[in-house]
Amino acid sequence: MTGSSADGLDLCLVHFSGDRDDPDYEVLYSGEIPYPKIFQRAFQNPLVLDEGQINDLDQALGIWLADQVTNLNLQFDCIGSHGQTIKHNPPDFSLQIGNPIFMAERLKVPVIYNFRNADIKQGGQGAPLIPIVDQFLFKGPEDVLALNIGGISNLTVIPKQNSDLPVLAWDTGPGNSLIDKAVQLYTTNKLSFDCEGSIAAQGKLNSILLKHLLKHEFYSTQPPRSAGQEQFGLDYFNQILKEFYPGTDQKFKDFIRTLTVLTAKTIATSANDLLKLYSPHFLFVGGGGYYNSTLMRILMNELPRLQIEGVNISGINPKNKEAFGFAYLAYRHLNNLPGNIPSVTGAREEVVLGTRLRPIF
Ligand SMILES: Nc1ncnc2c1ncn2[C@@H]1O[C@H](COP(=O)(O)OP(=O)(O)O)[C@@H](O)[C@H]1O
Ligand SMILES: [Mg+2]
Fold it and tell me: How many domains does one find in the chain?
């Protein structure tokens, strides 16, 4: 898994066994490999890449992924590879790169990739895809909320067993995307994110800026909805800077604080909408945003009814949850099981997600 934060590759090796529809799972290995600077720079602002650059990066990333997986020296039967999102334009298409042919050839296993387009062909958003994973992990006697804070944040509610209510999920707005960009600008790229939220902790909320930011049309778009660089990428960030450039050191800290509050508030608004219909006690958080303590503190204050915790079940934690998710989606593909949830993506039908590339021996 390589998410929109463009920080690097998350890996998770999972052994599935037992019942086909509801397998047992064991996490055998997890890891994170930071992207080389050249990928980081390109993927932090993918919308400006031209066709030639996209093709070159598709190949270069495909080779890099094959190198990383080969170096791990692990044994496995299949790879599920999400790839790096370059453009996310539902209802037309969603483009991920990282050509799978290099992994298939070097590792001699099938690679499942292109997870989003089968859902888009059914009229869906092609996102979010993690809700079926949330359902697999958290389905039980109580309603549960699951949140992922990557570059973008998404929230899922999993109704309790035998409930008549559907699984619902949508992107709530930015996760770390705007915070990361502000920190990179503030520190002239010495830091790529606000480690533990320490900069935001030194800032004060700029309520006027927050009010302005909350006017973004995405927040009033009805689900199914999904977001990407198109909504919360560099263009939008530069637009904010044009209107509210933080001119002093303290104003930069206030700016980063305000973006952190924006992420928390927009997550909380979506959670509160779901709390009108569902009765969860727990919200389990995944994604790198979990490690931003300031963000988590603000979120807890915004949602006092919920117990908010990092995902922590059977070797799955906030760092590897999404990578685990794509292992599970690859498992579903191999077993011909659908991977999308129409009540979430808006697709007409459930479909098996992904394209399978078999190695030519
Ligand atoms: N220790 C930390 N403190 C604060 N933020 C962190 C920390 N570790 C990771 N993050 C945030 O998480 C992001 C990466 O999260 P990730 O789940 O990989 O997102 P994505 O799926 O978009 O790549 C980083 O860009 C950073 O903003
Ligand atoms: Mg990442």
Answer: 2
Residue 325 beta carbon below 6 angstroms from any ligand 1 atom: no
Pair 87, 93: CB distance under 8 Å: yes
pLDDT (tens digit, 9 = 90+) per residue, 114-133?
A: 999 999 999 999 999 999 99
Q: Which atom of ligand 1 is nearest to the CA of 150?
A: 19
Per-residue pLDDT band for 268 (boundaries 50, 70, 90) equals very high
DSSP class per residue in 44-90: HSGGG--HHHHHHHHHHHHHHHHHHHHHHT---S-EE---EEEEEET
**Residue located via tokens 């495909």:** 62
Test site for ligand 1: of 40, 180, 193, most ligand atoms within 8 A of the Cβ: 193
Give the confidence band of 100 by pLDDT, cuts at 50, 70, 90: very high
Ligand 1 pocket: which of 176, 262, 317 to mutate (most atoms within 8 A of CB) = 176
For residues 218 and 273, membership in a common domain is answered with yes
What residue's CA is closest to ligand 1, atom 10? 288
Same domain? 175 vs 239: yes
Q: Is the pTM of this model over 0.85?
A: yes
156 and 269 share one domain? yes
